[in-house]
Amino acid sequence: MNELHRRYFYTAAVFISLLLAWEYATGNGYLKPYRFPAPSQIAKAFVELSNVGFPRDLTIWIHVQTTVGRIAQGYVAAILLAIPLGYVIGRVPVLEKLTNPLIVFGRSIATLSLLPLVIVWFGTGELTKVILIAYGCFWTMISNVIAGVKYVDKDLINAARVFGVKGIGLYWTVILPAALPRIFAGARMALGVGFMVIVGAEMIGTIEGLGALIMEARTFYRSEVTIVGMLIIGVIGFLISSGLGRLEKYLVPWDTGLDEVRR
Amino acid sequence: MSERISFSDIYWGLIGTLAVIVFWEFAARGGFIDASIFPSPSLAIESAAQKLNGADVIQHIGWSMYRVLVGFLLGAIAGIIVGIAAGWYKFASFLSLPLIELFRPIPPLAWIPLAIIWFGLGEQSKFFIIFLGAFFPVVTATYRGVISVDPLLLRAAQTFGLKGAGLLLRVAIPGAAPDLATGIRIGWGLSFGVLVAAELIAADRGLGYMIMHARLLGNVDVIVVGILLIGALNLITDGIIVWMIRKWIGRWHGV
Q1: Closest chain B residue to A115, measured at CA
Q2: Distance between CA atoms of B205 and B122, rounded to whole angstroms?
Q3: Which is more confidently placed, A248 or A139?
Q4: I want to staple B245 with a disulfide (CB 3.0 to 4.6 A). Which of B65, B151, B181, B216 is the partner?
């Protein structure tokens, strides 16, 4: 066995033994099934969720669709707003200085603390959730766009000037590509923020969406349903985030050395 | 021209901030936006001051800070220990990395229902959720910091006869300090966000509760003041953490 195989082997061994111990402990009453539902119960809950749904007729796929739809709307809105704005702010030093404290403060405001205010303004409907996601994503995104554009290597710009690139061409062919890795890093962080916000926002005033699902299930003492919901939230987050990573590799093949910044 | 250059960053920042506040104030007072649902800052503070009792507000702040401090400290300490162990000992990494990778994509807030099932509605469930908010950023940053310590440093130290725990404590951990510091800062920010959400959803005191309760009473002014207060607290505490980190790692890394 080489190193990698051994790694997989240990990982699998850890998981399987944990699952078996868990199953055994709940089966024998060491753990209360309501608090720690056994893996077999969780699997059953998953089947129930995908066929019957919880609450009835709201299957897990509907919850997923709702949540992903909300995130997508807020996320796209935030990105469309943050990229051009951040680009301009990052290129104009005076603007950057003027807006810096505002951006720091905007980012410091916990997104979910806006929930009561946004509910007063827009009610408890879809718009509220989308706005909260957009708010959270926006600040993460804009600070990364500004940093990306601002810290473009001066040598790159000077070299391009020497070759006669100027005006729009400079922005399009030099600054934007150089800033893209940072922008992508921002896009990934923002997605994490969006996920966090939606789960919290869905716990209040709705029955549709994964956040609502896990909270509803708790009220009905169905902790196994809660756990299924949590796992699915994790899986979706993981899939979207690695999807963005792939997209980035494809779109930004010149990306180097930003791996430390990215999460 | 010379006057413009002598303007320091702080002045520009102040001007920008003031411009926004004045604009907001003007729009609310001039009736362009409905002041009853979007009060100007001065009006909000003025009327919130009448509705809020100073001692109560301080109590809410106290509870919030207490929760976030306890949860964050537990999470950061656990994260540092697990991160170092996983980065230093191969066996520990086999055990902990897969579990961390499994749980990391689940946002801390998604644990709220389970936390309530496990720990009830009291303080423990909040500590647990804030713990998670701090744990994952700290553990991943610490782990990455430890494994990416310059091997040359390690070998040099080995040549001088350091090994085992001494090597870990005197070379690897100081080497990982910048990553660790980043993790701690991210963890603090996340803990703060998580705290507010936990207090909105299930609490009977704390700043998050204060603004959620104000919504039920229709006190928009209190909500606005509460939001600004939470933001300011986050900003101030983050500043303190940055300052402490600089003092701590300044002697190894020139920051």
Answers
A1: B212
A2: 11
A3: A139
A4: B181
Which residues does A54 contact at the CB level (< 8 Å), separation at least 6?
A48, A60, A213, A216, A217, A222, A225
Nearest to B197 among A10, A121, A200 (CB): A200
Domains of chain A: 61-251 (1.10.3720.10)
Chosen for mutation from B7, B11, B12 (greatest number of chain A CBs closer than 10 Å) is B12
Looking at domain B45-249, its CATH superfamily turns out to be MetI-like (1.10.3720.10)
Q: Does B58 touch chain A (CB under 8 A)?
A: no
Q: Residues of B with CB below 8 A from A226's CB? A: 113-114, 117
The sign of the dihedral angle between the CA atoms of A210, A211, A214, A218 is: negative
ipTM: 0.85
pLDDT (0 to 100) of residue A164: 83
In angstroms, the CA A111 to CA A135 distance is: 7
Whether the CB of A16 is below 8 Å from some CB of chain B: the reply is no
Name which of B97, B102, B192, B196 to mutate to probe chain A: the one with the most chain A Cβ atoms within 10 A of its Cβ: B196
Confidence (pTM)? 0.86
